């Protein structure tokens, strides 16, 4: 009993140690990801936003401000356009998912029934009034005469099979079969 308790305690302690080790690894990974994002952000800003050089005169400062305002306006327009596109696509997705939900919920597929339909009726249904040709599938078949073969004649001559069985049944029939075999 004590041996089992020691094993359980050891397993629990090992599990706790593994959990703490996994948490420590997760914390270091999160810190690495945050640092990588910060470096990526700095690289992007250095590439797209060159350092600002402030001119000395008032006239040049005003021109610089006008340029910056024009850039800000163009970026805001782009942002607004993308937001509107995103809202439209989200609305379309919601509408389509609602339609799909409605179709799934309301309608059950009816069991299909077999319908006997001739080839003519099928073509009329598919082609409508354009269908004029009558499709008689047996029209072009070759006529075959039934010939009496020797086998068929033999079968007809045998007669009723019940008579043969009645003759062979009982001891007399067995005796006849035995005598015929010799």
Topology:
Elements (H helix, E strand, L loop, with lengths): L1 H47 L9 H49 L12 H9 L22 H9 L2 H8 L1 H12 L1
Structure write-up:
The protein has 182 residues and is mainly α. Among the domains are: 1-50; 54-106. Helix content is 74%, strand content 0%. It has six helices and no strands. The protein has helices spanning 2-48, 58-106, 119-127, 150-158, 161-168, 170-181. The radius of gyration is 48 Å and the shape is flat. The two termini are 90 Å apart. The relative contact order is 0.02. It comes from Neopipo cinnamomea. Belongs to the troponin I family. This is Troponin I, fast skeletal muscle. GO terms for molecular function: actin binding. It holds the Pfam family Troponin.
Summary tags:
mainly alpha, 6 helices
Order of helices and strands: HHHHHH
Proportion of residues in extended strands: under 5%
Quaternary state reads single chain
Distance N to C terminus: 90 Å
Helix percentage range? over 70%
Q: What's the tally of helices?
A: 6
Give a count of the beta strands, DSSP E runs of length 2 or more: 0
Q: Structural class of the secondary elements?
A: mainly alpha
Could you name the ranges where pLDDT drops below 50 across 5 or more consecutive residues? none
Q: Please state the overall shape, judged from the principal axes of the Cα atoms.
A: flat
Largest β-sheet summary: none
Radius of gyration: 48 Å
């Amino acid at each position: 009993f004590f041996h089992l308790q020691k094993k359980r305690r050891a397993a629990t302690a090992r599990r706790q140690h593994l959990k703490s080790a996994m948490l420590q690894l997760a914390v270091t990974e999160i810190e690495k990801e945050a640092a990588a994002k910060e470096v990526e952000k700095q690289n992007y800003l250095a590439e797209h936003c060159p350092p600002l050089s402030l001119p000395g005169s008032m006239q040049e400062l005003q021109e610089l401000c006008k340029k910056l305002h024009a850039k800000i306006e163009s970026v805001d327009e782009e942002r607004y356009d993308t937001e509107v596109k995103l809202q439209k696509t989200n609305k379309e997705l919601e509408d389509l998912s609602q339609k799909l939900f409605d179709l799934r919920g309301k309608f059950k597929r009816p069991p299909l029934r077999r319908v006997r339909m001739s080839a003519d009726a099928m073509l009329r249904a598919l082609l409508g009034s354009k269908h004029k040709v009558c499709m008689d599938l047996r029209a072009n078949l070759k006529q075959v005469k039934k010939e009496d073969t020797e086998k068929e004649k033999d079968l007809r001559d045998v007669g009723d099979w019940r008579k043969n069985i009645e003759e062979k049944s009982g001891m007399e029939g067995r005796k006849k079969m035995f005598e015929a075999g010799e």
